[in-house]
Design goal:
131 residues, two-stranded antiparallel ribbon, 64% helix, globular
């Protein structure tokens, strides 16, 4: 069932993309949507204040096991997104998914297959993917 949702989404994107069919347009729009996501996060911090960034050096003890590493590393993010900031970020991430899917379409790639390959890699390698 989930593959149908992915395929339907990919087909709907393909049918609705009218103005930006060129790979160059798609790449530039994808880059723009990534910048808009970054800007929305920054505005959540600087304009709204619902979240804040409190960053310092990541401390990784030398003798720590890889299974414990995620407990030592921090996101540097404090607070929770308010409803307005959440809505803006969801919209910007949705736009990003649209252009990412458009890129898959123009390159004849299947988004669901890519998703499955990445999922298999993560579940197979687990913490050893080192991302």
């Amino acid at each position: 069932m989930k593959d149908i949702i992915f395929d339907d989404f990919q087909n709907a994107v393909n049918e609705s993309l009218l103005r930006h069919k060129s790979i160059l347009d798609i790449l530039s729009k994808l880059n723009e949507t990534e910048a808009r996501i970054n800007r929305a996060v920054a505005k959540s911090v600087t304009n709204c204040g619902c979240v804040r960034i409190s960053a310092d050096k990541q401390v990784r003890p030398e003798d720590i096991e890889i299974e414990e590493l995620s407990k030592c590393l921090k996101t540097h993010l404090k607070g929770e997104l308010c409803d307005n900031c959440r809505e803006v970020l969801e919209r910007e991430i949705g736009n990003n998914l649209f252009y990412l899917t458009s890129l898959c379409n123009v390159l004849d790639l299947n988004l669901y297959d890519i998703f499955l390959k990445e999922y298999d890699k993560i579940t197979t390698l687990g913490k050893y993917t080192f991302r």
